[in-house]
Design goal:
The chain is of the alpha+beta class and 210 residues long. The protein has 2 domains: 138 residues, DNA polymerase, domain 1, CATH 1.10.150; 30 residues, no CATH class. Helix content is 46%, strand content 18%. It contains 9 helices and 6 strands. The strands form 2 sheets. It has a 4-stranded antiparallel β-sheet. The longest helix has 21 residues. The N and C termini lie far apart (53 Å). The N terminus is likely disordered.
């Protein structure tokens, strides 16, 4: 059994416990009193029952832990959150160490990437969807984070006449992710590849691409 801790203002308030059994490995989230956060633990068990991978369960455990750390710092019960709390949580993730004087044994100066923030919000929204569907909450907070949008693409597809009225749920709390810059080989690099090519086929493919 392994533990991972997070500190706020020098007081340990949240802990992830890795639990190994004959059925495999799962995770538990403990509060400042070393008591399990029951609904979070049940959700992680649910992920286990639907055969989610170990990496997925670990990712979800850490994402939920971060959310509960935020709630603890704000003294907010997870069953009494509002839309504004979700917005504030995103802001908190961008600068957690400056925002609430959060301390960690594994502090990283680098801010959390938009991709990680979006993944965390997906985990949180799925957690609340689970709570609602299992009748542990009367309000579906998942709906707060999504709105219905009409399916659209830049160019009309072959099946456009079928999909034109199709609607999807859009995450309105999604942070914009920067586009990855496509790296292109220089003329010198292409020339070097051609020189190192061992056969006609490889040289042909390189010339075809560049």
């Amino acid at each position: 059994m392994y533990t991972y801790t997070i500190k706020i203002r020098n007081e340990i308030i949240m802990k992830i416990v890795e639990v190994k059994s004959k059925n495999g490995t799962n995770f538990m989230i403990l509060d400042g009193n070393n008591e399990p956060i029951v609904d979070a633990v049940r959700y992680l068990k649910y992920l286990d029952s639907v055969k989610k991978s170990l990496n997925t369960k670990k990712t979800y455990a850490y994402a939920l832990k971060n959310f509960f750390v935020y709630l603890e710092s704000k003294k907010i019960c997870y069953k009494e959150v509002s839309f504004d709390n979700f917005v504030d949580f995103i802001r908190w993730m961008k600068t957690p160490f400056e925002y609430e004087n959060v301390l960690s044994y594994h502090r990283k100066e680098k801010s959390i990437s938009p991709k990680t923030i979006n993944l965390t919000m997906t985990v949180v929204s799925n957690f609340y969807d689970y709570l609602y569907r299992s009748k542990k909450l009367d309000v579906n907070f998942y709906d707060f984070m999504h709105m219905e949008s009409k399916y659209s693409k830049k160019y009309k597809s072959f099946m456009h006449h079928i999909n034109k009225d199709y609607r999807t749920l859009k995450n309105i709390l999604k942070v914009k992710e920067p586009k990855k810059k496509i790296e292109v080989l220089t003329n010198a690099e292409v020339k070097k590849l051609l020189e190192e090519a061992n056969n006609i086929r490889d040289k042909f493919l390189i010339q075809l691409l560049y």
